[in-house]
Amino acid sequence: MKKRIPFSNHRPLDPRICNIALDANALDLGDTENDQLVIRFRELSDTAKVNVVLGGGVRGEVQHPNSPEPVKAAMLPQIFNLRPGLNAGQQSERRRVAAILQGNAKPGAHAADASHLSEAAETGCGYFITHDKRILGKRNELRPILPPTLQIVTLQEFFEILDDYLEGRRC
């Protein structure tokens, strides 16, 4: 039986026809198990077979001088959100997401992650790819406040969904 993503009650969107958001850690190389997936994702992005939209905050993190050059090369050419001023509703949503991510951490510790997830929701993304254990661990709690079409996934989970679509199977 096909493994289902544990947090979703909705069939994931076809990754070939929706926007995909990336966390700053999504395309890190160095983990040999994940490297082939990173290379495959970059090829799909470079050939416009998937549409990546970076949140302005993620773009800012990737531009940091300590970010690895291969990550910069893969992410900086992507379409990105210019981060205009936030309206009251957007500010409220970010606070709700931040409250869930914060848990027992000190206040404000996960505000950037909350912003990344909120930007993915605001730009209509079907996927937010991350390897952040806190975000992944909070998927069930985040589900009621994020759009039902936004799936928080690892790169491996993303490819399981994509491969289902490519092979004519549905999740």
Number of spatially distinct domains: 1
Helix content: 40-55%
Second rung of CATH, namely the architecture = 3-Layer(aba) Sandwich
| Structural classification | alpha/beta
By CATH, the topology is Rossmann fold
Q: Strand arrangement, largest sheet?
A: 3-2-1-4-5
Q: Taking all residues together, what is the mean pLDDT? A: 79
Could you tell me the strand content as a percent range?
5-15%
Order of helices and strands: EHEHHEHHEHHEH
CATH class: Alpha Beta
**Overall number of strands:** 5
Radius of gyration: 15 Å
- By CATH's scheme, which homologous superfamily applies? 5'-nuclease
Shape: globular
Largest sheet, if any? Answer: 5 strands, parallel
H/I helix tally: 8
| Distance between the first and last residues' Cα | 11 Å
Q: Would you identify the regions where 5 or more consecutive residues have pLDDT less than 50? A: none
